[in-house]
User: Which sequence fits this backbone?
């Protein structure tokens, strides 16, 4: 389903299309361990600090998946083709605390019934994690180039793996079974204040779509409706965020009544460790 964005930043509903034909449209398709430490060393990636913990758990849904669930379907994907990307927010800890974010993990669902990649890099040239405060634009804090025909990235700090599970966890896009890919940005070393909301976005620059001159593959973030997900959904408020290609804020987006029949949030997991106060 394609949802044109008005310039007051609030999307509205429109007809179904495969690919966007007009600039500035929001698209929606209703659509593991050898030794982790040893592997990271081989890749040139440092292991997390020993006190790094999962502080934001808004992982993939496990219940009410896909079209077979009917009106209680929980999973959805969102992208903003040829304009920018969608983001979301989270809060870590309590006021007065300080934390260092070690890793941020999200998921993406590329393709459609006629375009299904063997590797995420077949559709995208690079990956970027944008990050910022609650009242500022976002800036890239981690980036990686991608090579077609491979799941390797240009840096060991960005890791790609497939999250699809045969017969269980996949994404139903109007009857087409699409693969789900996990993207993890490690070694971030982002110091944040406890109890303060921060915003993020993940975006991949699309490669050209064959036989569609001037069109590139859209980046889709995996999202879900919190009450129907069947998993912990920390900080899910039912509202997502819109950013242009430069990371500037363009308002908020509520999926309910704007392309879907319920609210959703981008699925994300955040690992961090506390900054210890020195005793006097």
Assistant:
């Amino acid at each position: 389903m394609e949802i044109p964005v008005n310039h007051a930043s609030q999307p509205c509903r429109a007809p179904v299309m495969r690919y966007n034909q007009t600039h500035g449209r929001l698209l929606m398709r209703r659509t593991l361990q050898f030794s982790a430490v040893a592997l990271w060393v081989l890749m040139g990636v440092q292991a997390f600090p020993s006190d790094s913990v999962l502080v934001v758990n808004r992982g993939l849904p496990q219940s009410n998946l896909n079209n077979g669930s009917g009106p209680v379907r929980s999973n959805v994907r969102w992208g903003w083709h040829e304009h920018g990307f969608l983001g979301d927010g989270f809060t870590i800890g309590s006021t007065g605390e300080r934390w260092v974010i070690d890793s941020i993990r999200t998921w993406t669902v590329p393709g459609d019934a006629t375009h299904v990649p063997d590797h995420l890099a077949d559709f995208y040239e690079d990956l970027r994690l944008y990050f910022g405060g609650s009242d500022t634009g976002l800036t890239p804090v981690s980036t990686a180039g991608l090579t077609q025909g491979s799941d390797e990235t240009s840096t060991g700090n960005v890791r790609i793996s497939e999250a699809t599970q045969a017969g269980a966890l996949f994404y139903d896009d109007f009857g087409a079974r699409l693969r789900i890919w996990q993207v993890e940005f490690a070694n971030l070393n982002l110091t944040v204040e406890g109890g303060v909301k921060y915003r993020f976005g993940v975006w991949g620059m699309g490669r050209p779509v064959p036989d569609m001159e001037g069109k590139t593959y859209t980046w889709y973030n995996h999202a879900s409706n919190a009450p129907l997900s069947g998993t912990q959904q920390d900080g899910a408020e039912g509202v997502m965020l819109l950013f242009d290609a430069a990371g500037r804020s363009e308002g908020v987006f509520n999926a309910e009544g704007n392309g879907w029949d319920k609210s959703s949030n981008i699925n994300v997991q955040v690992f961090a460790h506390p900054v210890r106060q020195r005793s006097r």
Summary: The first strand starts at residue 2 and ends at 4.
